[in-house]
Design brief:
- Keywords: Membrane, Transmembrane, Transmembrane helix.
- This is DUF4352 domain-containing protein.
- This protein is 22% helix and 29% strand.
- With 218 residues, it is α+β, with helices and mostly antiparallel strands.
- It has two domains: 67 residues, no CATH class; 134 residues, protein yfey like fold (Sandwich).
- A seven-stranded antiparallel β-sheet has the order 6-7-8-13-12-11-10, covered by helices on one side. The chain has a two-stranded antiparallel ribbon with strand order 1-2.
- The longest helix is centred in the first third of the chain and has 13 residues.
- The chain is globular and about 45 Å long.
């Protein structure tokens, strides 16, 4: 059975009425706390590492599918690290031509570009890169990217404070933006909200992460 077929069977199982259970008050925090584990599993499958999900029995009919998860399988490759200079060879200050030649960005689908500010689709863990006058000045990454301090999508504002507050370079930009100054560059994190907790007791989570130049904006 392929992974797509397995996903379809699991989706049918979990979407069924038999699993309609009341939501726990701490459900959101619990899910956020397990993001790292889910990301490691998905990266391992995507990269072709030893399977983390072993199918030990397929039961046809109404009973559906039975599987066993092996937590002791070898870990998959770790996340890409977004440093103060860039990620995976794509760096702030790199020319668009150099980045494209290296396969780190792609031309827009319509093939058009402009000289002032242009968005380029990324590759790998890079969602998009923005160039100003032909130079990369902003890199937006996905959930398989970490900062050197281990911050990634799904972490909370409290995690940001623990990682960066002591250095004095953590700054609130507005209600949904947090900036970490790194010198010539900075991290910019987008959060759901900056209130300490919502009415359900849930901490605001990081939903966007990028590296930008401090001298040029796009």
């Amino acid at each position: 059975m392929s992974h797509d077929q397995l996903d379809d069977r699991l989706s049918a199982l979990f979407d069924g009425p038999a699993l309609d259970l009341p939501t726990r008050d701490d459900a959101a925090d619990t899910v956020l706390g397990r993001v790292r584990r889910a990301r490691r599993r998905r990266r391992a499958l995507k990269a072709g590492a030893p399977a983390l999900l072993a199918v030990v029995a397929l039961v046809t009919g109404l009973t559906g599918l039975t599987v066993t998860l092996h937590d002791d399988d070898p870990p998959g490759p770790g996340p890409e690290v977004l440093t103060a200079s860039g990620i995976g060879g794509l760096n702030i200050g790199m020319s668009v031509d150099e980045a494209e030649s290296a396969g780190l960005i792609r031309r827009p689908e319509d093939g058009t570009t402009v000289k002032v500010c242009q968005e380029y689709p990324g590759t790998g863990t890079v969602k998009a890169a923005f160039a100003l006058n032909g130079v990369i000045v902003r890199i937006v990454v996905d959930a398989f990217s970490d900062t050197p301090e281990g911050i990634h999508l799904g972490d909370t504002y409290t995690d940001l404070e623990k990682a960066y507050r002591s250095g004095g370079n953590l700054h609130r930009v507005n209600a949904e933006k947090v900036r970490v100054d790194l010198g010539a560059t900075r991290y910019e994190f987008t959060l759901e909200a900056l209130e300490p907790r919502d009415s359900a007791g849930r901490l605001p989570a990081v939903i966007g992460m990028e590296l930008t130049s401090t001298t040029q904006t796009c």
